[in-house]
Amino acid sequence: MFSGIVEGVGSVAAIDLSGAGGARLGLEMAGLHDGLTPGASVAVNGVCLTVVECLPPRCTFDVVPETLRRTNLGALRPGDRVNLERSLRLGDRIDGHFVQGHVEGVGTVRRVERGGGEWLVWTRAPAELLPCIVHKGSIAIDGTSLTVAEVRGDEFAVALIPTTLERTTLGRLAPGAAVNLETDIIARQVVRHLQRLAADGGDAGLRLEQFRTAGFR
């Protein structure tokens, strides 16, 4: 589990695609290697990956074919910069929102509006994600916790403040860029419950009498 507060920007040192459809990814960890041992979890551009080996300042991760297909990690090349966040520990502050590191789809940056000390980035999202993208809701873009500023059709906007532009890779976004998207876990569960409710003809299996029996009045 992560919070979407990027700790640092690393870089791709090596990528080996010689495996059976997967890849071995070597990253320069931007000083975040302390405490990382094999089996530890790190969000790389919002994708939860497991450390295979860590020889400071570099850590190595295996990336399965499914992840390469469903995220922007498959397009990485040596020298590319990536957002990094180590997994949360019990007692850590949650300054962003709960991010699982399970990227749901890849969006496409449509335009970047600059002005007033911030950037407004418009992104086209896959259709299946749209029900969970709501005004003032949370979304993770390349692992960065952001608030949805506006939704229009199949596009949504987020505002990027100077700190975010400086401390993440989002300051390099341009039209056409592919970005990893993960919607808010709470929104997803609510939407899925409502979808099941609709599929059941509006009957979620609960009756008013059941609440009364349980002590509700």
Explain how this protein is built.
- With 217 residues, the protein is α+β, with helices and mostly antiparallel strands.
- The chain folds into two domains: 8-86, Elongation Factor Tu (Ef-tu), domain 3, CATH 2.40.30; 105-183, Beta Barrel (Elongation Factor Tu (Ef-tu), domain 3).
- The chain contains four helices and twelve strands; from the N terminus they run E-E-E-E-E-H-E-E-E-E-E-E-H-E-H-H.
- The chain has a six-stranded antiparallel barrel with strand order 1-2-5-4-3-6.
- The protein is globular.
Key attributes of the depicted protein:
single chain; 217 residues; alpha+beta; Elongation Factor Tu (Ef-tu), domain 3; 15% helix
Task: Itemize the secondary structure elements and their pairings.
Blueprint: E1 8-16, E2 23-28, E3 41-44, E4 47-55, E5 58-63, H1 65-70, E6 81-86, E7 105-115, E8 118-124, E9 138-141, E10 144-152, E11 155-160, H2 162-167, E12 178-183, H3 185-199, H4 208-213
Antiparallel strand pairs: 1-2, 1-6, 2-5, 3-4, 3-6, 4-5, 7-8, 7-12, 8-11, 9-10, 9-12, 10-11
- Strands, count: 12
Task: Give the overall average pLDDT.
Answer: 91
Elements, N to C (H/E): EEEEEHEEEEEEHEHH
Q: Globular, elongated, flat, extended or rod-shaped: what is the shape?
A: globular
Instruction: Note the total helix count.
Output: 4
User: Strand sequence of the main sheet, in spatial order?
Assistant: 1-2-5-4-3-6
CATH fold annotation of the largest domain: Elongation Factor Tu (Ef-tu), domain 3
Helix-and-strand structural type = alpha+beta
Sequence stretches where pLDDT stays below 50 over 5 or more residues = none
Please tell me the total number of domains: 2
The appropriate CATH architecture of the largest domain is Beta Barrel
Distance between the termini: 37 Å
Main sheet? 6 strands, antiparallel, barrel
Q: Quote the beta fraction.
A: 35-45%
What is the helix content? 10-25%
